[in-house]
Design a protein that fits this description.
The protein is an all-alpha fold. The protein contains seven helices and no strands. About 6% of the residues have low confidence.
């Protein structure tokens, strides 16, 4: 195994396992608002414009359709740690999955798959490689830390 792969897994694990208290609190503030007010609130609160807050929204959402719409609208522009830029794809994929499930439960027609995010840095291959290494080394617990 390459040293850079090990370092990436460690960074990813540290990022996933960090305390999410502030992120969860900000997500709670967003979810307490009517869906029509969430964009404006987010624009006025730069501290909430992070990939961690978007992920917290996905975990706490009682209305996954409106929340996934919000997350997918902002995932390309929120702050992400440089070394973990592939987290954008992971959060976007999580949102698309939740949205597809919610639409299926509501009996709606499935949406066309949206194209992957276009950006510099990591790629879907990076995510696939990280997931492969997590599986290989039995580190699945890193993907679903206790909150």
């Amino acid at each position: 195994m390459r040293e850079e792969d090990i370092a990436l897994i460690r960074k990813f694990g540290d990022w996933i396992a960090r305390d999410r208290g502030e992120d969860n609190a900000l997500a709670g503030q967003i979810l307490a608002l009517p869906a029509s007010s969430r964009d404006a609130w987010l624009a006025q609160h730069p501290e909430a414009q992070t990939i961690e807050v978007l992920e917290a929204l996905l975990h706490a959402a009682s209305d996954p359709i409106s929340v996934t719409e919000l997350v997918l609208k902002h995932v390309a522009t929120v702050r992400v740690p440089d070394e973990l830029d592939f987290a954008r794809d992971a959060v976007a994929d999580h949102a698309r999955h939740l949205r597809a499930e919610a639409l299926a439960e509501a009996g709606a027609q499935p949406e066309k798959a949206s194209p992957p995010l276009v950006r510099s840095g990591g790629s879907k291959g990076d995510i696939a490689r990280a997931m492969e290494l997590i599986e290989k080394f039995g580190l699945q617990r890193l993907l679903h830390p206790k909150r």
